[in-house]
Design a protein that fits this description.
Layout (H helix, E strand, L loop, with lengths): L3 H15 L1 H12 L10 H23 L2 H5 L4 H42 L3 H16 L4 H13 L9 H4 L7 H8 L1 H9 L9 H6 L20 H15 L11 H10 L7 H19 L3 H16 L14
Helix pairs in contact: 3-5, 5-6, 5-7, 6-7, 6-12, 6-14, 6-15, 13-14
C-alpha cells in the first residue's frame, strides 16, 4: 500500500500540474479579498472565505469524483456516509492548518522572548495578563483572538535588533534608543504579508504608544490607539516591571502595581488600568508564582476556548541548549 506521505505528495504534484491551485488563488484574490465588507476584520473575512471554499469544494468533489467508480455502486445511505467522511476530512485539514499557525506564533514569540529576557515565560505571561484583562472587560471572542496573536508576536521586530543594543546592560545612547524603537515597524513589516496575522498588527505596531500621545512611533493618543494595543501595553509593562532582565532588576508586586496605576491617563488608558488594578494581585499570582508548565496549561486553555483547537502535548518547544 502506498504510504500516506507518498500519496499526499503524488496528489499535490497532480494538483500543481493541473494549474487549478494558481487559478483558484488568483480568482479568489480578485473577486473576494479585494471586496472585504466594512466592519469585518481581515481574519474574520479570511476565515469566512476559507470555510466557504471548503464547503463548495466538498460539494464539487462529491459531484465530480463519482465515488461509485472507486468503491462500487452506493446506496443513498452510503453516499451520505461518503459525504460526511469527505466533509470531516476537509474540516480536519482546516483545524490542522489553524493548529500549525498557532504553533508557529508560539515558537516565534517564545524565541524572541528568550533572546530578550532569557526565558520564553515572558510571552506566556503577557498573553495571560492581556487575555484576563480583556475577559474582565467583556470583549468579544474575535478581539481576544487578535489579542492572543499580537501578544505572542508583539516583539517579533526585535529579531532585527543587534544583541549589543537589545540586551545592553547599561544605558542606551540616543541612536541606540531609535534602533530599539524601530522594532515596532520592523515587526509590523514582517507580519503584514501573512493574511492570517493581519489582525495582530495593531498590538505589534502600537503597543508603545501612550495615552497622552508621547509614545512611539505614530504618536497616537487616547482612543486613536487600537484597544488591543492599549490592553497589551498595560500587560507588557506590568510584566516588565515585575521581571528581572539581563539589564535590570525587578520591582516587587506593590511597586509595579502602583507604577502602572500612576500611569493611568498619561501612559495608559484609564479604563484599562481600572480593570487591571482590580485584578492585579490575581494576575501576579497566576503569572509569577506558577511554573512554566502551569503557564503553558493556561495558554492551552485559551487556545481551546478561543480557537477551538487543541495544542497537542507532544508538540512543545524544545528547551534551549
Amino acid at each position: 500500500m502506498i504510504e500516506s506521505e507518498e500519496l499526499k505528495e503524488s496528489v499535490k504534484t497532480r494538483l500543481e500540474e493541473s494549474g487549478i491551485i494558481g487559478t483558484m488563488a488568483e480568482r479568489i484574490c480578485h473577486s473576494l479579498l479585494s471586496e472585504k465588507p466594512p466592519g469585518l476584520s481581515p481574519d474574520e473575512y479570511f476565515h469566512l472565505v476559507s470555510i466557504s471554499l471548503l464547503e463548495l469544494l466538498r460539494a464539487r468533489l462529491l459531484a465530480s469524483c463519482e465515488p461509485d467508480r472507486l468503491v462500487g455502486p452506493l446506496d443513498r445511505g452510503q453516499l451520505l456516509d461518503y459525504d460526511r467522511i469527505l466533509q470531516g476530512l476537509l474540516l480536519t485539514l482546516e483545524r490542522d492548518l489553524l493548529r500549525s499557525h498557532l504553533h508557529m506564533i508560539r515558537a516565534l514569540g517564545g524565541a524572541i522572548a528568550e533572546r530578550d529576557t532569557g526565558t520564553n515565560d515572558h510571552s506566556y505571561r503577557v498573553t495571560i495578563f492581556a487575555v484576563r484583562i480583556a475577559e474582565a472587560m467583556g470583549l468579544p471572542r474575535q478581539t481576544i483572538r487578535s489579542l492572543i496573536k499580537g501578544a505572542f508576536l508583539h516583539d517579533i521586530g526585535k529579531i532585527g535588533i543587534p544583541d549589543a543594543v537589545l540586551i545592553k546592560p547599561g544605558e542606551l545612547t540616543p541612536p541606540e534608543r531609535e534602533i530599539i524603537k524601530s522594532h515596532v515597524s520592523r515587526g509590523a513589516g514582517i507580519i503584514e504579508v501573512v493574511t492570517w496575522l493581519a489582525d495582530a498588527i495593531d498590538v505589534i505596531r502600537y503597543h508603545h504608544e501612550r495615552w497622552d500621545g508621547t509614545g512611539y512611533l505614530a504618536g497616537l493618543c487616547g482612543v486613536e490607539i487600537p484597544l488591543t494595543a492599549r490592553i497589551f501595553a498595560v500587560a507588557d509593562v506590568f510584566d516588565a516591571l515585575t521581571s528581572r532582565r539581563p539589564y535590570k532588576l525587578s520591582y516587587n508586586f506593590d511597586q509595579a502595581r502602583d507604577m502602572v496605576v500612576a500611569g493611568a491617563g498619561s501612559q495608559f488608558d484609564p479604563d484599562v488600568v481600572r480593570v487591571f488594578a482590580a485584578r492585579a494581585e490575581d494576575l501576579y499570582a497566576e503569572g509569577h508564582r506558577a511554573a512554566t508548565r502551569r503557564l503553558e496549561e493556561v495558554i492551552r486553555r485559551f487556545i481551546r476556548e478561543y480557537f477551538a483547537v487543541e495544542w497537542d502535548r507532544a508538540v512543545q518547544m524544545e528547551p534551549s541548549m
